[in-house]
C-alpha cells in the first residue's frame, strides 16, 4: 500500500514532504505500540476498532442508498459493495457475545492462505529473493496457527493485534522511505527506491532516464492499454473452461495448446509498447512448468512490435481496452527510449505484462500529487485496496495479462473516478442519475407513442 501511495503521489511531491512522511511514520509506530500496550494491559481494544466499524457502516449505507435511488437493476453492484462494507464492520465491531471469533477465524485463514500461496509461488517462479519469500510464508502460517490455537493470545484480540503489527510495519517502512526520498536525485522516478526494486523477480537493472514533473494539462490523446485475454487469443476453441485459471494464468484450447494472452500500451500516433519473444515459445503441457522459472536460464531474444496493426497481422486484434486520459507523456517516452534498447524476454520476469505495467507506472507516477489530501483519498477508496492486493499477488508470482487487465481497470477507477467519494455528493449524484434516467424513459415513451400514432394514420 505504501509503495502504491508513493507511486501515485510521485517523487517530485514527496521530496518536499519527506520530513512530514518521517513524522507520520513515527506516529504510526507510536499508535501501533499504544494498541499493543492497551491489549497487554487489559486484554481488550474497542474504541479504535468500533470507530472504524461505524465509518464502514456509514460507507455501506451510503452505497446502498445511492443504489436504491438510481435503481437496483442499474446499479446492483452498489448493493453488494454496501453489504460488503457492513459485513466487514460487523467483523471489526467489538461485540461482547462473539469476542471477535469470526474475525479471528477470517484473519487466521487469510494468513494461512497467503502463506501457502507465497511459498508455492516462490518455489515455482524462483525469483531473486525466493528464499526470503518462503521464510515470510512460514511466518504467516505460524501466525495463523497462533490465532487458531488461542495461544499465547486469546482469539478475541487477534484483530487488534494484527492491526497494531500492520501499523507498526507501515511506520517503519515510512521512516525508511522518507530517508530514501531525501537522498533521491532530482528528476528521478520513485520506482528507483529500494522498496520498489527489491520486489523484482530478476536482478534489478536501473533504467536511467529523465523523469519530468507530472503535467498540469492532460494530453490530447488517451493512453490505451490493449489486452488479449487467454481465452480470446486462443488459436482454437477453448472447450473445457476453468474460470479462474483461464482468466489469470492460461487457457488450454481443444488441441492442447496453452494460450497466456498478451497486453500492450499504445499512444497514438507513434508510440507502441508490446514485448514479445522473437521466436515462438513452445508452451505445451510437458515443458510449461520449467519455463516458469524467473532465472536468466530462461531468457530468450525478444522483439518490440512497431504498431498495433503490425501485431494484428502477426496474431489477432485485442479483445479488451482501458483508456487513461491523465498521464505523463514525456516521462513515458523518455523511459521507453531507454528501456527498448534491451529486447531480452523472459516468460515470467520480463514478459509483456511486466513491461506494460512498468511503463504504466512511469506514465501515471505523480497523477495524484496535486490533489488535496491524496493519502487520505486513497486509503478511503476500496478500489485502491483491491488494487494493492492484486499488485501484491502479481509481484509475488508474476504479472499475467489477466492480472494486468484487472489492475489497470482498478487503477483507472482510482485516478479517474466517475463519481465523487464524499458521502453527500454521492447521494446527490445518485439523484441526478435517477432524474436523467427518468427523462430518458419519458422521451422513449413519447417516441413510441409518436411512432404508433404515425403507423395508425398510415
Automatic annotation (TrEMBL):
TM helices/strands, residue ranges: 20-40, 52-72, 79-95, 101-121, 133-151, 157-178
Domain of life: Bacteria
Signal peptide: none
Keyword line: Membrane, Transmembrane, Transmembrane helix
Protein name: Membrane protein
Amino acid at each position: 500500500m505504501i509503495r502504491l501511495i508513493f507511486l501515485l503521489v510521485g517523487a517530485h511531491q514527496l521530496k518536499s514532504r519527506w520530513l512530514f512522511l518521517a513524522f507520520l511514520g513515527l506516529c504510526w509506530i507510536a499508535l501501533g505500540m499504544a494498541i499493543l500496550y492497551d491489549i497487554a494491559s487489559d486484554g481488550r481494544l474497542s474504541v479504535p476498532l468500533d470507530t472504524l466499524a461505524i465509518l464502514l457502516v456509514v460507507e455501506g449505507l451510503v452505497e446502498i442508498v445511492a443504489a436504491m435511488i438510481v435503481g437496483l437493476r442499474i446499479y446492483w453492484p452498489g448493493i453488494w459493495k454496501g453489504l460488503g462494507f457492513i459485513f466487514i464492520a460487523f467483523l471489526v465491531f467489538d461485540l461482547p457475545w462473539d469476542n471477535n471469533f469470526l474475525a479471528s477465524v477470517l484473519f487466521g485463514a487469510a494468513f494461512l492462505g497467503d502463506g501457502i500461496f507465497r511459498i508455492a509461488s516462490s518455489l515455482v517462479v524462483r525469483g531473486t529473493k525466493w528464499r526470503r519469500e518462503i521464510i515470510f510464508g512460514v511466518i504467516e502460517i505460524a501466525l495463523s496457527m497462533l490465532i487458531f490455537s488461542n495461544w499465547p493470545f486469546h482469539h478475541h484480540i487477534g484483530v487488534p493485534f494484527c492491526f497494531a503489527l500492520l501499523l507498526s510495519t507501515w511506520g517503519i517502512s515510512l521512516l525508511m522511505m522518507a530517508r530514501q526520498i531525501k537522498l533521491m536525485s532530482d528528476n528521478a522516478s520513485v520506482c528507483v527506491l529500494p522498496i520498489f526494486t527489491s520486489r523484482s523477480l530478476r536482478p534489478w537493472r536501473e533504467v536511467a532516464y529523465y523523469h519530468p514533473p507530472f503535467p498540469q494539462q492532460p494530453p490530447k490523446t488517451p493512453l490505451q492499454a490493449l489486452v488479449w485475454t487467454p481465452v480470446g487469443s486462443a488459436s482454437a476453441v477453448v472447450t473445457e473452461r476453468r474460470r479462474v485459471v483461464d482468466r489469470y494464468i492460461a487457457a488450454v484450447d481443444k488441441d492442447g495448446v496453452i494460450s497466456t494472452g498478451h497486453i500492450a500500451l499504445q499512444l497514438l500516433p507513434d508510440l507502441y509498447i508490446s514485448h514479445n519473444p522473437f521466436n515462438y515459445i513452445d508452451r505445451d503441457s510437458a515443458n510449461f512448468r520449467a519455463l516458469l522459472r524467473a532465472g536468466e536460464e530462461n531468457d530468450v531474444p525478444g522483439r518490440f512490435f512497431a504498431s498495433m496493426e503490425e501485431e494484428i497481422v502477426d496474431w489477432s486484434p485485442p479483445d479488451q481496452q482501458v483508456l487513461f486520459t491523465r498521464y505523463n507523456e514525456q516521462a513515458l517516452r523518455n523511459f521507453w527510449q531507454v528501456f527498448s534498447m534491451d529486447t531480452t524476454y523472459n516468460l515470467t520476469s520480463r514478459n509483456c505484462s511486466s513491461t506494460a505495467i512498468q511503463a504504466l507506472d512511469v506514465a501515471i507516477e505523480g497523477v495524484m500529487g496535486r490533489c488535496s489530501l491524496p493519502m487520505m483519498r486513497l486509503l478511503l477508496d476500496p478500489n485502491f485496496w483491491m488494487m494493492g492486493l492484486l499488485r501484491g499477488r502479481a509481484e509475488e508470482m508474476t504479472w499475467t495479462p489477466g492480472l494486468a487487465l484487472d489492475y489497470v481497470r482498478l487503477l483507472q477507477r482510482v485516478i479517474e473516478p466517475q463519481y465523487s467519494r464524499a458521502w453527500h455528493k454521492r447521494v446527490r449524484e445518485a439523484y441526478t442519475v435517477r432524474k436523467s434516467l427518468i427523462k430518458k424513459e419519458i422521451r422513449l415513451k413519447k417516441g413510441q407513442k409518436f411512432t404508433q400514432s404515425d403507423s395508425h394514420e398510415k
